[in-house]
Design a protein that fits this description.
Length: 287
């Protein structure tokens, strides 16, 4: 640290060498599945330089060593946030929630009422608006969902956003944008300013890296993985699509982001059922 404050003279003039960019790109690919094109170097360089100054690192080398160090969780999470975006909002890409409401949920609710098991997954859920939007759709159609075997899972690789999602606190102006038919499910927040218990108890949150093998025994009836795979290279995307297909029940739905496309072997079984919407139709079955 310099005598004047927290910025070292060296830190004022960080420039990322090609080798250092390559090291960051390899790290991001290995640990997060991210594909960082060379054209991203100026952006990565300026964002990283800011991070290094904030965290009082004196060189990229020192920062890279810390990413592999024993207390690396915070640094890794910070790097991921810097290379991707957590942008999300309630009922983003609303046509998916219409399909959820009209086509996906009615038979699943019947199934749950007959004592069956229903599982929905928001994979790459960021700060939680996506799984809470799913929960609002469920609760509007099935107010007793929490008493049934009906569960929603919300996961993200970044522990910081998962903590936000669990905390379930959102600013009033964000909540105000929710359509009235769902807004009525958030009549008031609890004493700590959280979304109501009725929504929170439908969802379990956890940290999960989608490029690693999934730890689940049971399958899902619907998976939302939107605006996440866009950061992956094509082989990684194809592996993730395949892993989702394996994780879906026959007839289960996969929703992906508006600029993402299904590709690779999973496309044989994940049949288009709307805009960026796919139904799992394993060979020999019709959904
Ligand atoms: C733009 S947000 C998408 C949020 C929400 N699904 C939506 O569409 O509004 C992308 C999220 O993907 C997460 N992410 C990136 N790489 C991931 C990975 N390998 N495994 C799990 N989540 C990942 C990021 O942490 C971030 O929260």
């Amino acid at each position: 640290m310099s005598a004047e404050g927290s910025i070292t003279p060296a830190a004022e003039s960080f420039t990322l060498s090609d080798q250092e960019f390559e090291a960051i790109a390899q790290f991001a690919h290995k640990h997060f599945g991210l594909a960082l094109a060379a054209s991203k170097k100026p952006l990565v360089s300026s964002r990283l330089a800011r991070k290094l100054r904030q965290r009082n690192f004196t060189s990229f080398k020192e920062y890279l060593a810390c990413l592999d160090g024993p207390s690396s969780e915070q640094e890794r999470s910070g790097l991921l946030s810097l290379l991707t975006t957590n942008v999300t909002h309630f009922f983003r890409e609303p046509h998916h929630f219409e399909t959820l409401r009209n086509d996906v949920l009615p038979p699943l609710i019947e199934q749950a009422r007959r004592g069956g098991r229903v599982r929905l997954w928001s994979a790459g859920c960021s700060n939680g608006q996506e799984p809470y939007s799913i929960a609002m759709t469920v609760l509007d159609l099935c107010p007793d969902a929490a008493k049934l075997d009906f569960k929603i899972l919300g996961t993200d690789i970044d522990p910081v956003v998962v903590r936000h999602a669990k905390a379930a606190k959102y600013p009033e102006d964000e909540l105000a944008q929710i359509d009235a038919k769902y807004r009525k499910l958030v009549p008031a927040r609890d004493a700590e300013g959280r979304l109501p218990d009725s929504l929170r108890k439908l969802i379990t949150f956890g940290v999960l890296n989608l490029i690693e093998p999934f730890p689940f025994r049971g399958r899902f009836d619907a998976i939302f993985c939107r605006n996440v795979a866009i950061y992956f290279d094509n082989p990684t995307q194809q592996k993730v699509w395949q892993a989702f297909q394996n994780a879906l029940n026959p007839g289960g739905y996969l929703f992906i982001g508006h600029s993402e496309r299904m590709s690779g072997p999973a496309a044989q079984h994940l049949k288009t059922a709307g805009i960026t919407t796919y139904v799992n139709s394993p060979a020999g079955r019709t959904s």
